[in-house]
Every structure is written in structure tokens, then in C-alpha cells.
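Researcher: I'd like a candidate sequence for this fold, 155 residues long. If you have to choose between options at a position, lean toward the conservative one.
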């Protein structure tokens, strides 16, 4: 068993009284390695100026966590298969909409990986699809959510 933790902190500013719905959604995420990430609600959910567009929002972080887990699993599988990856880029997209219970949820995330391989040994498209399929099946985060995760491979 492994345990993971994060510290989330928010503080009411002197110039931003906590009144009705008019308060800043800006806050911080802190992780065990000392990384401090500026966060906020999504400006798609809570309008400006209460959200801070330049900060990471939970919805973006959710799509990023799925993408990152998929990538790390994929790189592990590719290394085991004897391929060398030169670069990996994913432009993940999450869709928030009403779920089957009528609640707002990120119901779908589409991963769009573009992988550049190094050297003479290159996987076929079928092998690449199989590696991404296996990465999805073994991804810890994908195995933890109800969200539909699809992969649209870019070549």
C-alpha cells in the first residue's frame, strides 16, 4: 500500500472580504517534495475576478493527472519493449457536462499523445496502439475514476 498527500490552503485577503459569493478562489497546493502550485477555481465555472485564470484549476489538474499517469506507464512499457523515445507530448482535453445523475462532472478526457521515437527501431501503428491500450489498462489514475478516457494517437 502507498499513501499520498497534499496540503491545500486558502486565506481570506484583507481587501477581499468573505461576503456572499464574492471572494477569491485563489489558493495553494503543496506537495511532499516542497513544490507549491498556485491554484484557483476554473474561470469556466466561477467568473473572473473571483477565479484566477493564470493558476491551475482542479479540472485542468484532473486531465493532467490522467495524461501524466498514462505517459509514465507508456514510457515504462516502451522501455521494456526495447524502443527509445525521444519526446512525448500530449494535449489532453477534458469535457465537463452533466453525468447520468444530472451532476456536473468531467465525463470524458481525450488523450492526444504524439510520440517521437529515436533510432532505427520504430513501432508499427498497430504496436503503438497496443502500447497505448496497455498503458491505459495499467494506469493507476485511469483505474481510479469513472471518467471515460480515450486515446487519439497523433502520428
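Model: Candidate sequence:
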Amino acid at each position: 500500500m502507498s499513501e499520498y498527500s497534499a496540503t491545500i490552503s486558502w486565506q481570506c485577503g484583507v481587501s477581499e472580504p468573505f461576503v456572499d459569493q464574492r471572494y477569491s478562489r485563489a489558493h495553494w497546493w503543496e506537495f511532499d517534495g516542497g513544490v507549491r502550485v498556485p491554484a484557483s477555481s476554473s474561470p469556466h465555472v466561477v467568473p473572473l475576478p473571483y477565479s484566477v485564470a493564470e493558476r491551475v484549476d482542479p479540472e485542468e489538474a484532473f486531465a493532467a493527472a490522467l495524461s501524466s499517469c498514462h505517459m509514465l506507464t507508456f514510457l515504462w512499457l516502451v522501455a521494456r519493449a526495447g524502443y527509445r523515445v525521444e519526446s512525448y507530448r500530449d494535449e489532453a482535453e477534458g469535457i465537463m457536462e452533466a453525468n447520468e445523475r444530472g451532476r456536473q462532472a468531467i465525463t470524458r478526457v481525450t488523450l492526444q499523445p504524439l510520440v517521437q521515437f529515436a533510432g532505427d527501431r520504430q513501432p508499427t501503428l498497430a504496436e503503438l496502439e497496443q502500447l497505448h491500450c496497455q498503458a491505459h489498462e495499467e494506469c493507476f489514475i485511469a483505474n481510479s475514476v469513472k471518467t471515460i478516457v480515450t486515446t487519439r494517437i497523433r502520428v
